[in-house]
């Protein structure tokens, strides 16, 4: 029994489909109900569960979701905290990128640059908070309910948190990098806390991956990212899904509190 958030597209969809193909009953969760249902409909596997829309930044909505899981199945074995945002209005990243481009032009002309990134200058309270609410608070709310259910069922379980190489490189929107770095600390503390119960908690740090989130990034930046990857190409969602499957399975029974960098060598831990 597995629940995947942000499963309406990209890495979440690929993960849900792979877990279902391996025999897991899937609860498919996404902010977009139609997208979640589409993922469920694509599964050609026995034991398919159900799809639900849920704003994971709403602790009450998350509690209701997991209460339904409890009523229907009475247990949960795997939670994949995949739902996340990269950019939002007011995060200062768009203006920062414009200034970075101008700085590059100034340097190319041999000028002393007068343009600086200064992302924090334009980062609004709302831009900061929305990313933290989804990427960090949402993972906390879902993990709390999942652990309560695992304890109630006296079940060992696995929680897989999707972070990002941005957590370690600092490249990307400020609020995004901060939220993903926090996920790594959250993972380690939770792993220590829950280890004695047999509940494992690990994180994956994907590098650049061909998902809808990448569509918000300029083509120039995409090319620069690919140049920085030793393997020379971005990951596909299925590559991340395979790593999730490993951490969720008994093949990783001695893995907890760990971080896998699935980045083509872009970041080496």
Percentage of residues in helical conformation: 40-55%
What Rg is obtained from the alpha carbons, in whole angstroms? 19 Å
And the CATH topology?
Rossmann fold
- Can you list the strand order of the major beta sheet? 3-2-1-4-5-6-7
The biggest sheet, with number of strands, parallel, antiparallel or mixed sense and barrel status, is: 7 strands, parallel
- Report the CATH C-level class: Alpha Beta
> In total, how many beta strands?
7
Distance between the termini: 31 Å
Number of H- or I-type helical stretches: 9
Shape: elongated
CATH architectural arrangement: 3-Layer(aba) Sandwich
What's the order of the H and E elements? EHEHEHEHHEHHEHHE
Q: What does this molecule look like?
A:
- The chain contains nine helices and seven strands; from the N terminus they run βαβαβαβααβααβααβ.
- The chain has a seven-stranded parallel sheet with strand order 3-2-1-4-5-6-7, sandwiched between helices.
- Helix 1 packs across helix 9 and helix 5 (125-152) packs parallel to helix 7 (174-194).
- Helix 2 (33-42) links the parallel strand 2 (26-30) and strand 3.
- The two termini are 31 Å apart.
- The model has no long low-confidence stretch (mean pLDDT 92).
- It has one domain (2-88, 129-262): Rossmann fold (3-Layer(aba) Sandwich).
- It is of the alpha/beta class and 269 residues long.
- The chain is 47% helix and 13% strand.
Set down the secondary structure blueprint.
Layout (H helix, E strand, L loop, with lengths): L1 E3 L5 H12 L4 E5 L2 H10 L7 E4 L5 H15 L4 E4 L11 H16 L16 H28 L4 E6 L3 H4 L4 H21 L4 E8 L12 H9 L9 H12 L10 E4 L7
Parallel strand pairs: 1-2, 1-4, 2-3, 4-5, 5-6, 6-7
Helix pairs in contact: 1-9, 3-5, 5-7
């Amino acid at each position: 029994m597995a629940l995947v958030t942000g499963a309406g597209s990209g890495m979440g969809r690929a993960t849900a489909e792979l877990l279902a193909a391996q025999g897991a009953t899937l609860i498919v969760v996404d902010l977009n109900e139609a997208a979640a249902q589409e993922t469920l409909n694509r599964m050609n596997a026995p034991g398919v569960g159900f799809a639900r829309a849920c704003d994971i930044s709403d602790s009450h909505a998350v509690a209701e979701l997991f209460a339904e899981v409890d009523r229907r199945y009475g247990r949960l074995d795997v939670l994949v905290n995949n739902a996340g945002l990269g950019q939002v209005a007011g995060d200062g990243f768009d203006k920062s990128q414009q200034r970075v481009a101008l700085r590059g032009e100034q340097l190319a002309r041999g000028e002393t640059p007068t343009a600086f990134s200064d992302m924090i200058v334009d980062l609004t309270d709302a831009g900061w908070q929305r990313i933290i609410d989804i990427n960090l608070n949402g993972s906390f709310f879902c993990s709390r309910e999942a652990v309560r259910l695992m304890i109630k069922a006296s079940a060992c379980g696995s929680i897989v948190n999707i972070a990002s190489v941005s957590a370690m490189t600092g490249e990307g929107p400020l609020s995004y990098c901060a939220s993903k770095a926090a996920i790594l600390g959250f993972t380690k503390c939770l792993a220590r806390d829950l280890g004695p119960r047999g509940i494992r908690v690990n994180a994956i740090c994907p590098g650049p991956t061909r998902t809808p989130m990448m569509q918000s990034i300029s083509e120039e930046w995409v090319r620069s990212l690919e140049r920085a990857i030793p393997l020379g190409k971005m990951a596909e969602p299925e590559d991340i899904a395979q790593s999730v499957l490993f951490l969720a399975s008994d093949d990783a029974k001695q893995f907890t509190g760990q971080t896998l960098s699935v980045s083509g060598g872009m970041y080496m831990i």
